[in-house]
């Protein structure tokens, strides 16, 4: 019968943590018991890590970081403290992966209401084939916008998203801000099924502005560029259709960059972005 290590019990763990702490930083790399403890933690929390889409080694790292603290050494039940800390770390790491942000930001209270980003590529059927948000409205005789490309086929929605990000970058937006913002807007668009509904929801979405570190001017500029001007009189113009819809129905990046009603809000947004960083 194999004898269990003493650190399996709370008292034994407390004694080992105290000994390692008093022996100095190098004790963790030299003491065989320390290696055994980390291996045990990896096995102990492996299932919990996989539940959150992570590896057992990630749980072991989280456990190790807690074991270094005084809170773990002085706790009545060190394993309870470590287990709770590992659980929280894995939860927020998974949340950060879903929100496309840092773990520190995912821990903040203002991030509690966010939903995970949803990419077009995660669906088996291309979103543009069934989603009403990508339905092109019927042309009217009073249409005063730019002519549609005659020969271009509709663009895959995922490609359209990448091209939309490219348009923002060509106008001076940082890639990370542009991609995160456009993906977030598209995620809401897929949920609402309407560009108008998505716009109305997102323009009041203070959580999104906090997540992407954008002020109101930048955020509204991005919304108007991506989703279009939602005034009924602009419905059949390029400004009304917005960047994403134009790209979906066949425009390419160079076409869009020549449309002033699309590039103006993007340019205003990047100026506001630069002003905010200058005065921040």
Topology:
Layout: H1 10-22, H2 27-30, H3 32-44, H4 46-51, H5 56-67, H6 70-74, H7 78-99, H8 103-106, H9 157-170, H10 175-192, H11 195-202, H12 206-212, H13 216-227, H14 238-248, H15 253-257, H16 260-279
Protein name: Serine/arginine repetitive matrix protein 2
Organism: metagenome
Q: What would you note in describing this structure?
A:
This protein is an all-alpha fold and 280 residues long. It folds into 2 domains: 6-105; 125-279, no CATH class. It is 62% helix and 0% strand. The protein has 16 helices and no strands. The model is unreliable at 106-113, 139-144 and 148-154 (pLDDT under 50). It comes from metagenome. This is Serine/arginine repetitive matrix protein 2.
Key attributes of the depicted protein:
280 residues; mainly alpha; 2 domains; 62% helix; elongated; Serine/arginine repetitive matrix protein 2
Give a quick rundown of the structure:
Helix 3 (32-44) crosses helix 5 (56-67), helix 5 crosses helix 7 (78-99) and helix 9 packs antiparallel against helix 10 (175-192). This protein has 16 helices and no strands.
């Amino acid at each position: 019968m194999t004898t269990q290590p003493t650190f399996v019990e709370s008292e034994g763990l407390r004694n080992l943590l105290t000994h390692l702490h008093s022996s100095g930083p190098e004790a963790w790399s030299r003491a065989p018991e320390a290696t055994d403890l980390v291996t045990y933690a990896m096995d102990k929390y492996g299932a919990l890590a996989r539940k959150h889409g992570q590896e057992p080694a990630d749980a072991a790292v989280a456990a190790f970081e807690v074991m270094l603290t005084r809170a773990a050494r002085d706790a009545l039940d060190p394993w309870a403290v470590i287990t709770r800390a590992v659980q929280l770390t894995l939860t927020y790491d998974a949340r950060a992966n879903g929100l496309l942000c840092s773990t520190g930001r995912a821990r903040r209270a203002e991030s509690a209401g966010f939903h995970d980003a949803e990419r077009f590529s995660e669906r088996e059927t291309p979103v543009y084939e069934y989603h009403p948000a990508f339905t092109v409205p019927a042309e009217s005789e009073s249409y005063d916008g730019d002519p549609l490309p005659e020969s271009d086929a509709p663009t895959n929605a995922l490609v359209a998203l990448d091209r939309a990000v490219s348009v923002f970058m060509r106008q001076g937006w940082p890639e990370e801000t542009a991609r995160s913002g456009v993906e977030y807007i598209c995620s809401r668009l897929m949920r609402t099924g309407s560009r108008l509904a998505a716009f109305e929801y997102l323009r009041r979405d203070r959580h999104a502005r906090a997540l992407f570190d954008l002020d109101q001017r930048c955020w509204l500029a991005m919304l108007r560029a991506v989703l279009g001007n939602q005034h009924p009189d602009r419905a059949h113009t390029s400004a009304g259709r917005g960047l994403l819809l134009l790209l979906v129905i066949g425009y390419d990046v160079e076409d869009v960059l020549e449309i002033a009603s699309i590039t103006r809000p993007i340019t205003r947004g990047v100026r506001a972005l630069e002003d905010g960083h200058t005065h921040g």
